Amino acid sequence: MDNKRDLPSGRNFVDWSEKYATGIETIDRQHKELVELINRLYGACMQGGDGVGSAFREAMHRMVEYVRFHLMEEMKLLERIGYPKAAEHKIQHDILVRDILSASRDFEEGETFVPNKFVRSLKDWVFGHIAVYDKAYAEYVTEQKKKGLLGDL
Fold first, then answer.
1. How confident is the model over 43-55, as pLDDT tens digits?
2. Enclosing H/E stretch for 86
3. Is the pLDDT reported for residue 5 higher than 70?
4. Does 96 score more than 70 pLDDT?
5. How many alpha carbons lie under 13 Å from residue 62 in its C-beta half-sphere?
6. What is the arithmetic mean of pLDDT over 76-100?
7. In the chain, what is the greatest distance between 2 CA atoms, to the nearest angstrom?
8. What angle do CA 17, 62, 39 make, to 5 degrees?
9. Number of C-alpha atoms within 13 angstroms, CB side, residue 61?
10. Cβ-proximal residues to 31 (8 Å cutoff; 6+ apart), any chain
């Protein structure tokens, strides 16, 4: 996916940084995909004119589907490794899903909705979540591996 073509300036709205890496290849790959989808959403916002509606709708649909997939995969991982704060982590995921679905519904129903404000909030949530909650379970994985209680993920 080449999201740089989606933005008029040829730049990304946000770039992945290795400081957000969990060290779990599957999760990091999915997080990178979320970043690309955020860039697609933002690119759709920047199109202007009548194209914003259809481009944003398509990008939003893809984001909703991918977020659901990623969060489900992440929860499977947390359950498999016996992460003690999995229930708390799921609450954070549920909040994100609720907010994305609400924003999507508002957009579809023609409610007052500012797409680029939503995309900025989504970016902040994703990176904040990774930096705090996902890093916490990544540390748990590292500790468990050092104790010989987990193999490669």
1. 887 776 666 677 7
2. helix 86-108
3. no
4. yes
5. 17
6. 92
7. 57
8. 35
9. 7
10. 16, 20, 22, 70, 126, 130, 134
What's residue 70's pLDDT?
Answer: 94
Token pair for 37: 């989808």
Q: What is the DSSP string of 21-39?
A: --S-HHHHHHHHHHHHHHH
- Which domains, and CATH codes, for the chain? 25-143 (1.20.120.50)
The letter for the amino acid at 104 is S
| 115 in Cβ contact with 40 (< 8 Å) | no
Give the predicted TM-score (pTM) of the model.
0.83
Q: What is the pLDDT of residues 108-128, one digit of tens each?
A: 787 766 777 888 888 998 999
Task: Please tell me the distance from the alpha carbon of residue 41 to that of residue 131, in angstroms, as a whole number.
Answer: 22
